Amino acid sequence: MNAPASPRQVFEWALRVYWEDTDAGGIVFYANYLKFFERARTEWLRSLGIEQQRLKESTGGMFVVLETSIRYRRPARLDDELIVTASMVETGRASMIIKQQALLKSEQPDTQPALLCDGTIRIGWVDASSLQPTRMPASLSACFPS
């Protein structure tokens, strides 16, 4: 079994653009970047040993998105291969800010991927039944050192 990743490292998740991701012009619909970011964050948490459903069942809490800030730079198109990243920017007692990017994978070796979209997502910890903000359990906070 692999050792858990560090929350401060940049996590990368590969994705191909399908018809369902695009608008009538074959360009990724802007809101779908939020879906891509969500999937990458979920896989990033898994890489840290955190499975959200199990976490909810064992602690009674869950993460919710509190705030997003996204900048669109270039369009992604049908069949493009993307790399979606996630990395920790800031942690608190009940929330954290995660930097995310969507990059166009380069077909040329030794060429950097092109930045398509980037932003930050603030996620908060809430009681799953009341949806009221609460402090993250100490065992969870320990996964995200300040």
Secondary-structure blueprint:
Elements (H helix, E strand, L loop, with lengths): L10 E6 L15 H16 L4 H8 L1 E12 L8 E11 L3 E10 L9 E14 L10 H4 L5
Antiparallel strand pairs: 1-3, 2-5, 3-4, 4-5
Model description:
The structure is a single chain. The chain is built from three helices and five strands, in the order E-H-H-E-E-E-E-H. The mean pLDDT is 92. A five-stranded antiparallel beta sheet has the order 1-3-4-5-2. The protein has one domain (11-141): Hotdog Thioesterase (Thiol Ester Dehydrase, Chain A, Roll). The chain is elongated and about 45 Å long. A hairpin with a 3-residue loop joins strand 3 and strand 4 (95-104). It has helices at residues 32-47, 52-59, 138-141, and strands spanning 11-16, 61-72, 81-91, 95-104, 114-127. It is α+β, with helices and mostly antiparallel strands. The longest helix is centred in the first third of the chain and has 16 residues, at 32-47. The protein starts with 10 loop residues before the first strand and ends in a 5-residue tail after the last helix.
